[in-house]
Automatic annotation (TrEMBL):
The protein's role, per its UniProt record: Functions as a ribosomal silencing factor. Interacts with ribosomal protein uL14 (rplN), blocking formation of intersubunit bridge B8. Prevents association of the 30S and 50S ribosomal subunits and the formation of functional ribosomes, thus repressing translation.
Any Pfam family the entry gives: RsfS
NCBIfam families according to UniProt: rsfS_iojap_ybeB (TIGR00090)
Principal subcellular localization: cytoplasm
Family membership noted in the UniProt record: Belongs to the Iojap/RsfS family.
Cross-referenced HAMAP family: Iojap_RsfS
Source organism of this protein record: Vibrio zhugei
Transmembrane segments annotated in the record for this chain: none
Record key words, sorted: Cytoplasm, Repressor, Translation regulation
Name under which the protein is recorded: Ribosomal silencing factor RsfS
Claim: Repressor is one of the keywords in the record: yes
Highest taxon of source: Bacteria
């Protein structure tokens, strides 16, 4: 799957689970770890974990290889790592505290 298609797919799957304030950041020139970061908000620990589970399940069904998922047990900030694209699902408090959009833009 091409980068733009993957980004759209991940954002769409997060939206399926009612993720809020979905933002895509192109970080190719700023990061050697990934090319694209998608940041979205979940309303509770359970919601954040459910978004991550849904996205991971849908990616697996499409044959998209996940490199890892981190933070599901805590449910405050979950990262779904797909290599060139990373999905950050955060509760509002963590999103305001870490301000990834500001950091990477």
């Amino acid at each position: 799957m091409q980068r733009n298609d993957l980004t759209a797919f991940l954002a769409d799957k997060a939206d399926d689970m009612k993720a809020e304030n979905i933002i895509t950041l192109d970080v190719r020139e700023k990061s050697s770890i990934t090319d694209v970061m998608i940041v979205c908000t979940g309303t509770s620990k359970r919601h954040v974990s459910s978004i991550a589970d849904h996205v991971a399940e849908q990616a697996n069904q499409q044959g998209i290889r996940l490199l890892g998922i981190d933070g599901e047990d805590e449910g405050e900030w979950v990262v779904v790592d797909l290599g060139d694209t990373m999905l950050h699902i955060m509760q509002e408090e963590q999103r305001e505290m870490y301000q990834l959009e500001k950091l990477w833009s």
